[in-house]
Design goal:
The complex is a heterodimer of chains A (418) and B (275). Chain A contains eight helices and 20 strands. Chain A is of the alpha+beta class and 418 residues long. In chain A, the strands form four sheets. In chain A, strands 3, 5, 9, 10, 11, 17 and 18 form a seven-stranded antiparallel beta sheet that branches. Classes of the chains: A alpha+beta (418), B mainly alpha (275). At the A-B interface, α2, β7, β10, β18 and α7 of A face α7 and α8 of B. The complex binds protoporphyrin IX containing FE. Protoporphyrin IX containing FE sits at the interface of chains A and B.
Chain lengths: 418, 275
């Protein structure tokens, strides 16, 4: 930071700049909830047609991808520089101000009085004490924590990556990035791949008596043998964390026979408008298929199958595993089996522990800065005539009006009236 | 009486005692009967008993703490706010006027809760985490501290706007009101920081990322920044008591928006909460 030109340093350290930096981050947050983020081409075109001025503004300021827009990154970078300057300055000041005050330091004390008490026979005595000195470490610790958090955020943008896919019981998730359907990664991050293949053996949902989902876990077979994966209990696999999400449902494994060829496919049923899991989709030959299973804690043992042609129902049946439905134009649709499917997420985030450290520093610093107040106390007693003149001063570093009671007690004690 | 009917009856008993306490606080402050403040405080504390019992009954019935549905959340927030008020007023009878802001807000929250969805909803697996306790617990403490800061800020503004001299006489001095506003904002800010940090750690356990710019996360950050800006402005621009009071009212508005209004308005991963 010391290499920065003085004018730039002064600008970055100015209260107005710091306030603007905080406001900039807050405004980006507001924009992200008011403007749809990462809209498709159709949504963009709709906005351009309905409100051309708004669309222009969104485009010009990158408001529809605000957290990667140039101005937001610039604000965050400026905030990081301001913070670095402030943190260095705050630590220096904390060290400088750590020692006890000199007598002269109490001239500005908001509480100060003189009293006379009976002589003690001793000469001039000066007693200077301080409590709550750790309060001075609060703000530097807090802002250091913020700086660490910003660094962690930057590391996540560059090196963090997450991948996701749906998996059926029995599926093996290979040890290559292609095993996932989506990859969402930082600018310099390699795609996520498991270090070794993992098999999803069985999914075990459990329910409350009311039917709501209580817990979801999965038995898996991984590189280190069998293991349990559960919602809220990810598995650490050599730098990659594997998560079980709560998105799951029955999967119907179907076999379609049309004109002598058999094709197998899995349809993943998910809760739609009704609470019962459903699936809609096209079949070859211009047909549409609708599947529905009864919601429940157990893997459904039957699936309602409806085949439509141009919106008209042409065949329907409730099929159990092994059951088949003849299609009117020849061919058949068979239900081979029903398994559970679940959405898995794998992530690699080298910034998680630094971020936790940042949180810990920020919270510890704030606790000191808020809960502790440094209070310096001066008591000078010196012989004066037949008695002793005592100067009592109390200097809280913050929130001075709250220390009137403490000062009263101190004065009473020193005057022997406690 | 069924369990639920008893729960509602206890809630109403709590609300009735809070209303009585509020009327007595108003009488004590506005008409200069300071001797009635301790009685009013006693009524508010008495209200905490049936209200607390109602919350515990609900807890036992639904099998989780008061943090899922709006009914549970608002009721527990109101309880904590009244408890924080009682703690603050103990031994500070001169501060009875703060109750005239905190009690109506708590009664309003309790009322809104009682008239909202009272169905029993079990907590889903993603919410079953120890971090939830820290996240929600500290968010509630933050709400209570910020509400107290709103109380002292509003009194500051009442004082500055030329309320009747006799009322002004009964309010604490501006610099003391200011110091308490900043103190409450400080503690609220600390609790809010812990709530956000615990939420981030929990999100990493549950969703695979500690920060994802989800709408509710983002607004929590915005409200946190609003309070942070207020604390900075105090130091940087030597903000005087009245602008400090206005700023804390504004920051409180952003906080309420983030915590209690936004969950209705925007699609969010936090959608299970506050239905
Ligand atoms: C751009 C980044 C930031 C910079 C450069 C910065 C700078 C400063 C400075 C110079 C002080 C005064 C310290 C002193 O006099 O010892 C301060 C205090 C403080 N800042 Fe920041 N800050 C930043 C971000 C934040 C953020 C994001 C928050 C929280 C939302 C925050 C909360 C605080 C608090 C709570 C205090 C102490 C206030 C008090 O003691 O009453 N700061 N900051």
């Amino acid at each position: 930071m010391s290499m920065l030109p003085t004018r730039l340093r002064r600008a970055l350290r100015s209260p107005w700049t710091i306030t603007a930096e905080l406001a900039g981050v807050a405004l980006a947050g507001l924009a992200s909830t008011l403007v749809e983020q990462h809209p498709g081409a159709a949504a963009r075109a709709r906005l351009a047609a309905a409100r051309p001025a708004a669309a222009w503004l969104v485009q010009a300021l990158g408001l529809d991808r605000v957290f990667t827009s140039g101005w937001f990154l610039l604000v965050v970078a400026a905030a990081a520089c301001s913070l670095a300057l402030v943190v260095a300055e705050q630590w220096r000041r904390a060290v400088r101000e750590w020692p006890l005050l000199e007598e002269a330091g109490f001239r500005a004390a908001p509480y100060r009085t003189e009293l006379v008490r009976p002589a003690s026979g001793e000469g001039r005595r000066v007693r200077i004490t301080a409590r709550g000195r750790a309060a001075a470490l609060g703000s530097p610790l807090f802002h250091t924590g913020l700086l660490v958090l910003l660094a962690a955020g930057a590391a996540r943008m560059l090196f963090g990556a997450a991948a996701a896919r749906e998996a059926l019981e029995g599926d093996v998730i290979g040890a290559d990035p292609g095993a996932f359907e989506t990859q969402d990664r930082g600018l310099l991050a390699a795609p996520v791949a498991l270090p070794a293949p993992v098999k999803l053996v069985e999914l075990a949902p459990s329910h409350y008596p009311s039917g709501e989902l209580l817990a979801l876990s999965a038995r898996i077979a991984g590189p280190a043998g069998p293991a349990l994966l559960a919602v809220n209990a990810p598995l650490e696999l050599d730098g990659v964390r594997l998560y079980l999400t709560q998105a799951f449902g029955p999967a119907a494994i179907l076999e379609l026979r049309l004109r002598g060829t058999a094709t197998a496919r899995a349809a993943l049923l998910a809760p739609a408008d009704s609470a019962d899991p459903e699936w809609f989709g096209p079949l070859p030959g211009g047909l549409d298929l609708r599947l529905r299973a009864a919601a429940g804690p157990r893997r459904p043992d039957a699936v309602d199958v409806r085949v439509l042609s141009g919106g008209a129902l042409i065949a329907a049946a409730r099929l159990g595993p092994g059951g088949a439905l003849a299609l009117p134009e020849g061919g058949s649709l068979a239900l081979r089996e029903v398994r559970w499917w679940v959405r898995l997420v794998a992530s690699r985030d080298p910034s998680a522990w630094p971020a936790y450290a940042g949180f810990a520093l920020a919270v510890a610093g704030l606790a000191l800065a808020i809960a502790a107040v440094r209070v310096d106390v001066l008591v000078v007693a010196e012989p004066a005539g037949a008695g002793e003149r005592v100067v009592v001063a109390l200097r809280p570093r913050r929130l001075a009006p709250l220390f009137a009671g403490e000062f009263d007690r101190l004065v009473r004690r020193e005057s022997g009236r406690s | 009486m069924s369990g639920f009917a008893l729960e509602v009856a206890l809630h109403w008993a709590g609300a009735a005692l809070y209303i009585a306490a509020m009327v007595l606080f108003a009488n004590a402050v506005l008409f200069g009967h300071p001797g009635r403040t301790p009685v009013a405080l006693g009524l508010a504390v008495a209200g905490l008993v049936p209200h607390g019992a109602a919350i515990l009954l609900r807890w036992a019935a639904v099998g989780h703490g008061p943090y899922l549905l709006r009914y549970e959340v608002l009721s527990a927030n109101a309880w904590l706010a009244v408890a924080a008020l009682a703690l603050f007023l103990r031994g500070r009878p001169a501060w009875g006027a703060v109750a005239l802001v905190v009690l109506p807000a708590s009664i309003l929250a309790l009322g809104l809760g009682l008239f909202s969805n009272d169905e029993i909803r079990r907590i889903p697996p993603t919410l079953r985490s120890v971090w939830l306790v820290f996240h929600v617990g500290f968010a509630k403490l933050a709400a209570a501290a910020f509400l107290l800061s709103l109380g002292t800020a509003v009194l500051q503004l009442v004082r500055a706007r030329g309320a009747s001299p006799r009322l002004v006489e009964r309010l604490p001095a501006p610099e003391v009101l200011d110091a308490y506003t900043v103190r409450f904002v400080g503690f609220g800010f600390l609790f809010w920081t812990i709530a956000i940090a615990a939420g981030a750690i929990w999100a990493n356990q549950s969703w695979g990322r500690y920060w994802g710019w989800d709408a509710i996360e983002t607004w929590s950050l915005v409200s946190w920044l609003a309070y942070g800006t207020l604390l900075h402005a105090r130091l940087f621009f030597r903000l005087r008591p009245v602008p400090t009071a206005w700023s804390s009212v504004a920051a409180f508005a952003v906080f309420v928006l983030a915590l209690l209004v936004l969950p209705f308005l925007v699609p969010s991963l936090h959608a299970a909460y506050f239905q």
